[in-house]
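== Sequence entry ==
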Amino acid sequence: MTITGFGEVAERLRRSTVVVRGHARGGGSGVICSGDGLIVTNAHVLGNRSASVQLWDGRELVADIARMDRSCDLAALRVPAAGLSAATLSDSSRVRAGELALAIGNPLGFVGALSTGVIHAVGRLPGLGAAVWVQANLRLAPGNSGGPLANAFGEVIGINAMVAGRLALAIPSTTVKNFLVGRASSAWLGVSVSPVRVPDGRSGRFGLVILEIEEASPAALASFLPGDILLGTEERGFGHLEDLRTLLQGGSERHVRFEFLRGDYSKVRKVTVLLGAWPAERPRAA
């Protein structure tokens, strides 16, 4: 089946796709969201507060990281430019299986590479938590991260993020829109954690040991300390790392009563934490 103007669609999308260099291990792609220099990409593409961007016309620009949310793997960049060719963000809730999909990116050094396929599904995947993905049967490679997944009209329906099996996974455009206007996809606790088994004479309870705590975060205000082990909440214990991520889903402020261990593994402590919205204009650790 021939789609009239498909070549023009792909060319327009190429002009709205940039090369992003912000990590020592390589770069990725990004999508121009407004003509005055707003670009969205994956958070995992970036490393620090600065990055560089190469436009389709070859211009190299220094970019500032305006916003980052590692919980949904998105970052917004600002470059000093005007009159850029901006892509259109579509409504990913209307995407259906079987629709044509195309991806533009910069895999393995090939700038503006095009890949085509079809939508497989839109929804969650086992082992990847509560996140919803636009899943497409097309080929991605390192360097595609942060680039657009689009429909046959060239409208962006997702930001390519990873590969699972033979499927390309993209962050839905509805999530991207919420991120760009400052609506949090998850609440903020402000800790980095690692799964552990707590010795208790049997098989051991599952817990999440706190490795780092962000300054002035809800966890810091609740007097958590590195080395504390989160067991869960009063209502439900943790059995997997995804349980904490699921608990943090939804950006509204709310009180949560955590159970945790400190020092004495036989004594369960409790503390009420006010989960907050992510601080604006600040890079955030996972």
User: Anything to note?
Assistant: The chain has a mean pLDDT of 87.
